[in-house]
């Protein structure tokens, strides 16, 4: 079964690797990615033929992809919603639920909106040959009446709202 919605972690990994590295040398292969974080096309000083050292501070303290809502197999997912959106919805006041890695069937008897604080889940809607992957930082809406199987690979901690 194919799984829709997997997140490419390379941007986050590169961000984490070079967070506040204004004095760290960067391998040549990361040179083209540097302007993505710096917002600059300024030339970099050469330290050696294969190594570059930034001449400016690489500001990656806050790396957040634009929030984008997608709908796959009836499940709406907003990846990395801004804090203002979470505040507007009152997410921090919603009840919390969590579970350890496991696999179980579930039916949503009412519409549920949830925000995953941590975890990783593959959701297999009944009758579909695909799954939808959700994880920490996702704001997810499940429609009323959806029956599915949750395959939790990393323990989940989430806020949820019914109705």
Can you walk through the features of this model?
By secondary structure, this protein is mostly beta strands. The chain folds into two domains: 2-7 and 65-162, Sandwich (Jelly Rolls); 20-53, no CATH class. Helices cover 14% and strands 45% of the residues. The protein contains three helices and twelve strands; from the N terminus they run E-H-E-H-E-E-E-E-H-E-E-E-E-E-E. The chain has helices at 10-17, 31-38, 83-89; strands at residues 2-4, 26-27, 45-48, 51-53, 68-72, 75-79, 96-99, 102-107, 112-125, 130-135, 138-142, 147-162.
Identify the notable features of this structure and list them briefly.
3-stranded antiparallel β-sheet, 163 residues, mainly beta, Jelly Rolls, 9-stranded mixed β-sheet
């Amino acid at each position: 079964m194919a799984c829709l919605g997997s997140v490419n972690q390379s941007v986050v990994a590169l961000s984490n690797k070079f967070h506040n590295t204004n004095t760290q040398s960067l391998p040549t292969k990361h040179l083209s990615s540097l302007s993505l974080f710096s917002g600059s096309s300024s030339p970099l000083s050469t330290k050696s033929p294969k190594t570059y050292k930034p001449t400016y501070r690489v500001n990656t303290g806050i790396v957040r992809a634009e929030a984008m809502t997608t709908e796959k197999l009836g499940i709406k997912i907003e990846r990395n919603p801004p804090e203002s959106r979470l505040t507007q919805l009152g997410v921090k006041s919603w009840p919390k639920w969590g579970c350890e890695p496991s696999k179980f069937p579930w039916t949503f008897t009412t519409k549920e909106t949830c925000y995953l604080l941590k975890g990783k889940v593959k959701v297999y809607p009944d009758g579909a040959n695909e799954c939808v992957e959700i994880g920490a930082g996702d704001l997810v809406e499940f429609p009323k009446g959806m029956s599915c199987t949750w395959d939790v690979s990393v323990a989940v901690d989430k806020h949820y709202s019914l109705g």
